[in-house]
Amino acid sequence: AEGFRWNIRYWEIWNEPDGTINMWCLPEGDLAEKGDRAGQARLDEKRRALFIRFYVKVLKRLKDEFGDTIKVGGPAMCWMDRKYFRALLGACREAGVAPDFISWHHYAEDPMVIADAIRTGRALCDEFGFTKCELVINEWHYFSFSDYDWGDLRSPDPVKMRTCWEGPRAHNGIDSSCFNLAVLSQMQTSVLDQAFYYGCRNSGNWGYKDEFQRKFKVYYGLKMFGDLLKVSDVLCATTVPPANGAPVTTALATKSRDGRRKSLLIVDYRTRASAVCVKVAGAGARAKVRAVVHDGRHDVEPIEASFVGGQLMLKKSDQESAAFLVSFED
Length: 330
Known about the structure:
six-stranded antiparallel sheet
């Protein structure tokens, strides 16, 4: 009848079209005979070409119909697939239609990889002339592929369930929480336009609480980041050494607009170190230093911090991942 008026601005064409036998399938099937790599490659190429024709046609029709009153893009790839995006963006350019945004998903255990995906997305859009095209990661979450896979995550097998849901490397454990903080820190200084954490529900294994309303570690990590943004909203310069796949330490420095309160979020992700030591510039020698820790044993709880001669020292309670939020007040 009269429908709804929800003022939805962003319209995404499809979801995970690159997922085999998932969201976008060929009528005759997507899988070749087992071991037939050449046949599988042909099917993958055929499926990709069919989707790209669909995508360009729908994009052009919607932009012709609605112009700039809505934003149309997508297609929520399973990951930042450079080859697929090159084909998609090339077809858009050939058809003379520009997507308002591209989107993809990101599930990983290395928090540094996401920054590379963002840079790749920007470079691809610029290469094809879509310099105003926004970048959107509309699903992202920690996933410890070295410990479990998608089948394990959905398995009723008690042994596999314990691997996925118990311990520091579990799906919503302390590694997952510190991964979130490291990723969020990188996003603040990246060219990414939007990101959506999967999935902020108040129940279920993808949320921040279980069915009994017990909070996962990821809840406290997200709370820590929120506490940082409440008091400090001006970004400061930080220098982080490259990771190259190794365990990482990341930092995000901020200050209040009046400059009186400065904050530093430090994330130690799988380094196995017993303490964190960083050089801090811009905080007065007599500044009051307060710190809280988030690790496998503590959930955003006060901790002693040593700050002498510009060196900040924070001791860890174990060698697992940990995050620290430190404030300096003149």
